[in-house]
Amino acid sequence: MKRPIIGLALGSGGARGMAHIGVLSSLEKQGIQVDMIAGSSIGALVGSFYAAGQDVEKMKKLALVFRRKYYADYTLPKIGLLKGNRILQLIHTFTYGKKFEELRMPLAVVACDLETGEKVVFKEGSVSQAVRASISIPGVFVPHEMGGRQLVDGAVVDRIPVSVLKEMGADFIIASDVSRVKKTEKATRLSDVIMQSLDILQNELVRHQTIHADLMIRPRLETFSSSSFTQVQEMIEAGELAADQLAGELKDVIDKWEC
């Protein structure tokens, strides 16, 4: 009995990426085994924790206590508001300092070369360093230096890395899309301006990039901000509900594949 190699693409979306944890929780509950993950920005962060062996229930608890103060290390705003050293240490801790080769499943992390505009896909080396590069939101985090390159957020070039999973050999690709433009009041912080602008600019890009996914999971996140971690529980629940609603469709596909 052969089953498809299942790849999970976890997209960018700032704080709304907490919904990815709910998606993972639902897939586990359904008995769906994810064989590989590709992530961009917050999707890379969540995906790396999971691939490193973090339990989903523990990830939920971590998300619920996650606040700006745990990663905010402000610097003079020359090329970014935050140095990114604190978030790098956090990632290193919760991925157990692992290299890609030591993870429980293949993982790909997407970043962007600021000088060339090239998409950079990490599949080896330090997981925490790669994820730090992938979450480097332009204007918020200082670009991450790796291998002589200045790297910024993977969302700049590939917000939901479905094509990366195709290249890695996935037979069936599930994409978790947490990109939503929130109707917002007047912005009061620079980070709000940056995140809302990125959401608006890349909405159309997402529609084109995800067309080759076999199953799209789109949690209802229109009322949640991409720059606030104050409604984490609700975002996780939205992700779990969205994946639960597609359980029958997913089971049918896998059952037919095995026949």
TrEMBL record:
The keyword Hydrolase applies. PROSITE patterns: PNPLA, UPF0028. A motif (DGA/G) lies at residues 153-155. The keyword Lipid metabolism applies. A motif (GXSXG) lies at residues 39-43. InterPro entries: Acyl_Trfase/lysoPLipase, LysoPLipase_patatin_CS, NTE, PNPLA_dom. GO terms for molecular function: phosphatidylcholine lysophospholipase activity. The active site is at residues 41, 153. Residues 8-166 form the PNPLA domain. Pfam families: Patatin. Gene3D superfamilies: Cytosolic phospholipase A2 catalytic domain. Keywords: Hydrolase, Lipid degradation, Lipid metabolism. One of its GO terms (biological process) is lipid catabolic process. Belongs to the NTE family. This is Putative NTE family protein.
